[in-house]
């Protein structure tokens, strides 16, 4: 699979907690494809540093729908809904077990299936903004 993961899910409410990001994964692929999990395993991913566990993720839900409707993160916008405008762009970060490095890449959340995000860290504009503010505050204190 070469398509990057995207898309929201729509199961029962998500469980969130503060996390430290995705840990090592067991996938053996060479690209940013989804990591393996069985159908009975809950979907586990991170959004702006918060751990999300979805036990009944809807395979038809896109990441954009999930971010906006389930998590209330409306900074990621719906434009064309077909991958043409970029209004829904988010950053995904995935651990690459073969290189032991994090791979960061941009995806259109309107096209990304939620179920493809197992062990992936998602950064939205809200997460990017928080990081920038923390950095600016750190510079002001020096
Ligand atoms: S809404 Fe236009 S690319 Fe996703």
From TrEMBL:
UniProt-listed PROSITE patterns: 2FE2S_FER_1, 2FE2S_FER_2
Keywords: 2Fe-2S, Iron, Iron-sulfur, Metal-binding
Region (Disordered): 1-41
Span of domain 2Fe-2S ferredoxin-type: 41-128
Gene3D superfamilies linked to this entry: 3.10.20.30
Classification via InterPro entries: 2Fe-2S_ferredoxin-like_sf (IPR036010), 2Fe-2S_ferredoxin-type (IPR001041), 2Fe2S_fd_BS (IPR006058), Ald_Oxase/xanthine_DH-like (IPR016208), Beta-grasp_dom_sf (IPR012675)
GO MF annotation list: 2 iron, 2 sulfur cluster binding; iron ion binding; oxidoreductase activity
Regions of compositional bias (Gly residues) in chain numbering: 20-32
Annotated protein name in UniProt: 2Fe-2S ferredoxin-type domain-containing protein
